[in-house]
Amino acid sequence: MLGRLGKDAGSLLGVEITPPFIRLVQLRRHRGRYKVQAWALEPLPLTAMHNGWIGDPDQVGASLLRAVRRSAGTSRRAAIALPAGLLIEKLLTLPADLDDQALAEHLPAEAGQFVPFALEEAAIDFQAMGIDPQDPQRQRVLVAACHLASLDALQASLEVAGVHASVVEPDTHALLRAVQPSLVGGELLLQLEANSVVIHEQGDGPVSLHREIPLHCSGDVVQALVSAVDNYLLSSPGRVLPEQLLLCGAGVSGLHSPEQLQQRLGMAVQYVDPFKPMMLAAGLDTEVLKAQAPCLAVACGLAMREGNRCLN
């Protein structure tokens, strides 16, 4: 679940299942540069999801199968995003002499201190992050846990679509990977979806920083975003104000332009385009892909993954 971008990445389907769409991207890496091979957006039935995650695996699986066929992608191995709200992440410091097998045996006892449900109902994964800079006798280990029921619903959907999950990871990690070339420091990243906005920041450590804010508005999206950002910034007195706001997510299509938001917030605002530095395979529609790019950022970051570490 907690993987790294590697030099041989590029064969996985990146799949994000977030209302109102399934978003799918396939990349290929050649001579150090990514090429977009395929992508698709497929609407999700309203009855398919419950509280932001899979409620009806058969409906979600059918939508995913349509997305795979629409994209005409060749891979059926996928990296899948889990909404950050379904996960708990914790950075632990443990003895440096514990290898992966010893860590796997040791972690359930550690996880019991921060997982708010029974451990037998939890899926736990980890990634060793290296020696603790403050203590060479200890190592930093990033631990993530979620409820098994979330993965069971995902697995049932994938079986309907004939897709295999090689990787499952938090959507925040995938999103930050996709927008990394655009980050220069001091940005806020807003993921605007159908009923919420998630504010992401790149923290000093490996644990992702995010806050989800429900959007109860049917009209003025700009005002809702301004209020969300203002409240978020006011919750951290003394913090340095961000220099730039990056926008992504399906809700971006409801904003006619970023200028009004820019004027209201007093900071630069731009849409995320993770495909900007990439090549396109022959036959892909450049204009359509550019228009859909902010909605596909998480799926793009997933497609940049490698390896087979999976939450289990």
Structural class: alpha/beta
Largest sheet at a glance?
Answer: 6 strands, mixed
Relative helix content: 25-40%
Q: How many domain regions?
A: 2
Number of strands: 16
The proportion of residues in beta strands is 25-35%
| Outline | globular
User: Within the CATH hierarchy, at the fold level, what is the topology of the largest domain?
Assistant: Nucleotidyltransferase, domain 5
End-to-end separation in angstroms reads: 9 Å
Structure overview:
It contains 8 helices and 16 strands. The relative contact order is 0.20. The protein has helices at about 55-70, 100-110, 150-160, 170-180, 220-235, 260-265, 285-290, 295-305, and strands spanning about 15-20, 20-30, 35-45, 50, 55, 75-80, 85-95, 120-130, 135-145, 165-170, 185-190, 195-200, 210-215, 245-250, 270, 280. It is about 25% helix and about 35% strand. β2 (about 20-30) and β3 form a beta hairpin. It is globular. The strands form 4 sheets. A 6-stranded mixed beta sheet has the order 10-6-1-2-3-16. The chain has a 5-stranded mixed beta sheet with strand order 13-12-11-14-15, covered by helices on one side. Strands 7-9-8 form a 3-stranded antiparallel beta sheet. It folds into 2 domains: about 15-85 and about 150-305, Nucleotidyltransferase, domain 5; about 85-145, Dna Ligase, domain 1, CATH 3.30.1490.300.
